[in-house]
Amino acid sequence: MSSPQQIADSFQQALNLSSSPNGTNAVSTSPTQSYLSQYMQLNQKPTKALKPFSTGDIKILLLENVNQTAINIFHNQGYQVEFYKSSLPEDELIEKIKDVHAIGIRSKTKLTQKVLQHARNLVTIGCFCIGTNQVDLEFAAKSGIAVFNSPFSNSRSVAELVIAEIITLARQLGDRSIEMHTGTWNKVSSKCWEIRGKTLGIIGYGHIGSQLSVLAEAMGMNVIYYDIMMIMSLGNSKQVDTLDDLLSRADFVSCHVPATTETKNLLSGPQFAAMKDGSYVINASRGTVVDIPALVQAMKAGKIAGAALDVYPNEPAKNGEDLFVNSLNDWASDLCSLRNVILSPHIGGSTEEAQSAIGVEVGSALTKYINEGNSTGAVNFPEVSLRALDLDQQNTVRVLYIHQNVPGVLKTVNNILSNHNIEKQFTDSQGEIAYLMADISDVDITDIKSLYEQLEQTPYKIATRLLY
Ligand SMILES: NC(=O)c1ccc[n+]([C@@H]2O[C@H](COP(=O)([O-])OP(=O)(O)OC[C@H]3O[C@@H](n4cnc5c(N)ncnc54)[C@H](O)[C@@H]3O)[C@@H](O)[C@H]2O)c1
User: Fold this and answer.
1) In this structure, what CATH number is given to the domain that contains residue 52?
2) Which of 17, 208, 304, 342 is the right S-S partner for 308, CB 3.0 to 4.6 Å?
3) What's a GO biological-process term for it (predicted)?
């Protein structure tokens, strides 16, 4: 189905970003270009394009204005794409999902068991966002539907926002701007600083923390980080052994950890007390990580000189006025009354570049799963992949077999497959689900049909797909 050149063309087209599905308003975005270039290792040995046995044309339903980059990828695969700018009411969704092989959504579409049980042909779901809790992942897995998302496409966007916030806090820029908007001219230099030579303490040195470290060093900052894992530093940054060590040395503390029970209120009263006088706190990770009432106390006491928050324990479900108020979080008005506090509505990863990168990442994950059976990156499913077939492997079929993870299944399956030459085979399980991929050589169309029929009749089978 997809030759390397077709994939090359689809990524090349994906680079011609546009803001509408009709392809107008092209924009050029260098970070995205460099992001996409990692996919463009095209001078490789040509590989065989596979096509599905007994599936017909691949139909994809895309909802919630999924990015144009993904649409381009699917069009270039020859898939039939049905695109909607918004989510669909449940009854319409149920109607539409009946026939499609893949569905692409963002956060508003709820793919519950009730909806998914109507999906007769669905093999994969793409969440063109980070979160996947809008999908019943367990039911999807039990139905043989692999779910993909894009957890890291917006790392750079978050890191850049944090750099902006470090400077904004150091220069009290938010306050000066608010003053000017209300007619006040307040030219001050007291307690306004350069960031050069200051120490940034990063808590959580993962995708975002490590990007931030590189950017901060380029701006002349010293970087230290604390992480529960031993992680090799980038540049001259240094890992410290304890959180307290980091807090006692950093002028700016920025959180980049996941929301876990261990990270709940990771920064609270004792941690603010351990920080340097006049230091700054930034949280663009998850709202549970910083104890906001304790932060308010530390700021009122003059211990902390400024804070930038992008995430909150409770966040409004939609945009609108009068939503960030005490009825949502009972400290909201206290927090808003403080000076040198930058508040943003969870926009760390919200950039055009991140959206187009998400389109490419999820679009290509779905394509690889549909065309090759490769489930690497699936969130609810065993991650299995086989190297591509060579062009000269014409009489080879790729078996994709999803089954319940119970004893004896492989024996039955291999009994069926072993009448032929099994070129390669890989199987893995996750919870109750197991996934087997195998390339079987020297088969003709009669053999393929017979393999399909035998596999379909095996007990504990969830789904069978054959690509040839
Ligand atoms: N504001 C936004 O719009 C936005 C966008 C993207 C991601 N995020 C959030 O940013 C956070 C970081 O994302 P990421 O992509 O860098 O994640 P990541 O998984 O790549 O990195 C997280 C790091 O935190 C470390 N860690 C985990 N528990 C820890 C603890 N108790 N103490 C110290 N370190 C710990 C991990 O070892 C890992 O290195 C996540 O919470 C993510 O949800 C926010």
Assistant:
1) 3.40.50.720
2) 342
3) L-serine biosynthetic process
* Nearest CA, atom 2, ligand 1: 348
Q: Is the beta carbon of 207 within 6 A of some atom in ligand 1? A: yes
Question: What are 123-150's pLDDT values in tens digits?
Answer: 999 999 988 989 999 999 999 999 999 9
Helices 4-15 and 68-76 sit at what angle, rounded to 10 degrees?
150
The single residue of 82, 138, 194, 315 carrying the catalytic annotation is 315
Q: Which of 160, 249, 346, 423 is an active site residue?
A: 346
pLDDT tens-digit readout, 381-440: 999 999 888 777 778 999 999 999 999 999 999 999 998 999 999 999 999 999 999 999
Q: Are residues 316 and 426 in the same domain?
A: no
Q: Are residues 109 and 141 in the same domain?
A: yes
Range of the domain at 402: 386-467
For ligand 1, whether the C-beta of 139 sits within 6 Å is no
Query: pLDDT tens across 81-102, in order?
Result: 999 999 999 999 999 999 999 9
* Total of domains in the chain: 4
Label residue 64 left, alpha or beta by phi (over 0 means left) and psi (-120 to 50 means alpha). left
User: How confident is residue 204, by pLDDT bands cut at 50, 70 and 90?
Assistant: very high
Which string of b and e fits 2-35 if b means at least 16 CB within 10 Å?
A: bebebbbbbbebbbebbbebeeeeeeebebbeeb
